[in-house]
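Support reply, case 0932

Customer input (verbatim):
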Amino acid sequence: MNLTENYTKFLACQRDILEYVRKFGLGYFGVLIFFGTIGNIISLLVIRGVRQTYHQPSCQIQKEPSEERGQEFAALHVGSRRNSPVRVTPENSQVLSFETTAGSPKPSGVGVINQTRFSIVSPSAIPKRQPMRKHPSKSIFTALAIADTVALWVNPIRYWILFAFGFDIRQNNSVTMCRLHTFLTYATRDIAIWVLCLLTFERYLIGCFPHKAKIIWRGRRKVSAWVGIFSVILAKNSILIFILQLIYPDDVGELVIVGPSYAELNTSRLLLCDTLDLTSRRVFFYLDIVIYSLVPTGLLLVLNIALFRVIQRRNVMCRRCEFFPKSDNVGAAPMEDSMRNSMSMQLGSLKIIGSVVQANQLLIPVGVFHLITSVPICIFSIVEDAMQLKRSPSAYARCVVNACGYLLVMLGATTYGVNCLIYFLSSRQFRERLYALTYPTRLVKEVEPTSYFLDPRDTVSPHQNPKGRNPKEGTLVESMELCADALRS
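Our regenerated output:
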């Protein structure tokens, strides 16, 4: 191909392909930066719980009146026998307390109950739950929103200025700006993806090990993981500060570092923020592929699959642990009462599983969307580096490579500005909190006793039979055994 034909194709590429790509990129990056920043701010406010108040009634297991009266006398008898204080709480919010000791006359429970209904509970019979049932991830969700916003204002803004004014802040200024902007671009995108990986890993621990998550992932271990990952990111990207230079092609087509003669003779030549040392360039390139692409991609795939299995297992457990009507067999009543109490404790273990479902449902689409948007540009970078397409002597080839690179950069930058939209589409709880943030009203969320442990959509009333099930097909004892087997598995 002679020089004339090559130059003609280059002009055609500039006119027909690259110009349309730049016009599209100008509008695309403008919309992405504007609405992406607003969306990240909204996500940050919703996650932090701004202008949101919740009212959640205490958790109580519904009991029949006969059961309540029998348990009142039983608790009173146990309290008097063990010399323990007994709390008597009337339903009209009046609190009475008294202590009974061995040998003292027992209070007349019949007269008391005739006047007002009391709930007598012995403190020794009250189960104590550990404080590790709540595992908030607000800090990492906040870090993810901040990292996405910073990444959105570092690299996409450069392309918007280039498409709008024809000025590249990385390659048309100085070698200092070349190194600084390239360092910030790679560092912010690495931090954004690794924050997502850490958040997904934390939710995986909470979903699979609810009672050990705070012990495994806290204190020095958590801080060491953050510091270690950030240290590796900074060390990897610091290589750019030492190897990058502003270079340009000279009259014979060879790349030369910008010097004093460039300002006098070659002001019209295109500058490149790159390095002449191919060895150091390839070392950094493959390190970047491993740290930014291969390892995070593998982690997100494995963790998202694991989170999906946690959600499915939780749904199966909720379906098996539904309440069924009492059996008519009188002999089975003590066993059913014991199993009912055991059931209330086992349902407590489902509380943490139900609480992480919403967060897991947010993370899975975010991780999948990141994989869809980042994998193509990684493959393109590997092919471009292997064939050195940007350094091709053909101007037409360089034009096509630049056009493809612009389109893939647009696709990759999308992941930093659409998290709010993903949250909104995939989470009903996020939509409710967004409504509370938008309108100056108090968000009051009444929770039924069983839905305190389970997801509200999966709640089944203790006095209702599930649809399509015959009460004679299984008793409460059988359902309790199924629930116990599911929890052990």
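We compared this against your earlier run and they match. Two observations from our side: Residues 333-387 form the longest helix (55 residues). The radius of gyration is 32 Å. Please reopen the case if you see a mismatch on your end.
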